[in-house]
Design brief:
The protein is of the alpha/beta class. The protein has one domain: 3-Layer(aba) Sandwich (Rossmann fold), CATH 3.40.50.170. Helices cover 38% and strands 20% of the residues. The protein has helices at residues 13-23, 42-49, 58-62, 66-73, 90-95, 119-127, 163-186; strands spanning 4-7, 30-35, 53-55, 78-81, 100-104, 132-139, 149-156. α1 (13-23) crosses α7 (163-186). The longest helix has 24 residues, at 163-186. It is globular and about 50 Å long. The structure holds 5-O-phosphono-beta-D-ribofuranosylamine (GRF). 5-O-phosphono-beta-D-ribofuranosylamine binds next to α1 and β5.
């Protein structure tokens, strides 16, 4: 089984869903959780799940080999972005070519790109009276929310839905599909 590292900048509920999905099958491929945000709740989740975590700086990621060295020392084969807000540098993309995936909480190319994350996405969906929204799981490249699409799943948006309601619907889709797609991609 391949070794997975998850990058997250915030709450980390997807990270937790992924770990639990595999553990239900008696598997434990997530070896490391990395974050750029020392206050991210994902660090608390990592502790509770008993998974090693690492906080890194932008220097570490963009100007040193720190992050790459950590990944290689843990023999990481596959990288999962789950609410990670920084771009992945070219050196990392080259080393992990075709092995880095992301999930975006909307139907790309709509509502993607720099600054389009979290509740901002759902607020924009509601403000524009979209009739549907959903998730996009895609390969990662040099641009935000841009690589080849692996899977999109949509859900209707009701006229009375608040951004919070839309966020809840999208999270439900994320927990349902991201872990199983990761499983397919690493097997
Ligand atoms: C998710 O909606 C994901 O699609 C997006 O960021 C959010 C992260 O949520 N990329 P969480 O930190 O996993 O709870």
């Amino acid at each position: 089984m391949k070794n997975i590292a998850i990058f997250a900048s915030g709450s980390g509920s997807n990270a937790q869903a992924i770990v639990e999905y595999f553990r239900k099958q008696g598997k434990d491929p997530v070896k490391l959780i990395l974050t750029n945000n020392p206050k991210a709740y994902v660090l608390e989740r990592a502790k509770q799940l008993g998974i090693e975590s690492v906080v890194f700086t932008s220097e570490d990621l963009y100007h040193r080999t720190t992050v790459l060295d950590i990944l290689q020392s843990k023999q990481i084969d596959f990288i999962v972005l789950a609410g990670f807000l920084w771009l992945i540098p070219t050196a990392l993309l080259k080393t992990y070519k075709g092995k880095i995936v992301n999930i975006h909480p909307a139907l790309l190319p709509k509502y993607g790109g720099k600054g389009m994350y979290g509740m901002k996405v759902h607020e924009a969906v509601v403000a524009n009276r979209e009739k549907e929204t959903g998730i996009t799981i895609h390969w990662v490249d040099e641009e935000y929310d841009h690589g080849d699409i692996i899977l999109q799943v949509s859900r209707p948006v009701d006229p009375t839905d608040t951004p919070e309601k839309v966020a809840a619907k999208v999270h439900e889709l994320e927990y349902l599909h991201y872990p199983r797609i990761i499983e397919q991609l690493i097997s």
